[in-house]
Write a structure and sequence with these properties.
Strands 1-2-4-3 form a four-stranded antiparallel beta sheet. Helices cover 36% and strands 12% of the residues. The mean pLDDT is 94. The chain has helices at 5-11, 27-37, 57-75, 87-101, 134-151, 165-171, and strands at residues 49-54, 107-114, 154-155, 178-187. It is α+β, with helices and mostly antiparallel strands. It has a single domain, classed as NADH Oxidase. Bound molecules: flavin mononucleotide. Flavin mononucleotide (FMN) is lined by residues 15-16, 18, 95, 98, 156-160, 196.
Amino acid sequence: MEDNPRFFDLIGNVRAMRRLRTDPVPYDLLMKVLNAGVKAPSGMNSQPWSFLVLRAPAEKQWFADRYKAAIESRFGSSDLPSEDDSPMARQFRALRYQMDHMHEFPLLVIVCGLRDWPFKVPQDERVGLAPPNYGAIYPCVQNILLACRAVGLGAALTTMHQVFEEELMERFQIPVEYGVVVTMPIGYPMGRFGPVRRRPAEEVTYFDRWGVTAP
Ligand SMILES: Cc1cc2nc3c(=O)[nH]c(=O)nc-3n(C[C@H](O)[C@H](O)[C@H](O)COP(=O)(O)O)c2cc1C
């Protein structure tokens, strides 16, 4: 069977796009990428995802204010020197841009997962709330990232909402059966899509015993 080279090109440059334009994203395009998300696999095909999309300026502002406070409480509020061109410094600047402009991005998609105890937790130890079904939500999120790339939208996976998750659930009336897994700002990108930087699989793959790489 022949390779599909476009698939490999696409997967190789699905970077976190943190600088987004303010132009609106049509409803049909949003549904196209979310419908790619829901094609993901899930245990027993339980499809434990739901999306809450923030579009209204006041709701996005509410989220952005708390997101900024959460980042600053963790990383501080000072900028890195602009002459620092290391990948880390560039990522940090992109994170700051994202944080400062979060309220202007057209869509903030909050990906929620139905809570579900992992099999390994025995019945009598299932106390309190189960975690959301991360195992199914992340493939869904990755499908959305790929679909965004395919239609020319930029998106990033963010998780800092964890710091204010309770408040978030209350504000948006998210039922307690769900947990918030990821928030994805989505919009048309300001910059170009570029290649991801990753260690090659050959370096992280072992055969028969840990540490034994292919000859
Ligand atoms: C579990 C997880 C949590 C992440 N949290 C954030 C986040 O809070 N904010 C953000 O901008 N990116 C977040 N990312 C995206 C990573 O920072 C990004 O994938 C990584 O730095 C590699 O960059 P690239 O995908 O652009 O190549 C997260 C990714 C994962 C898988």
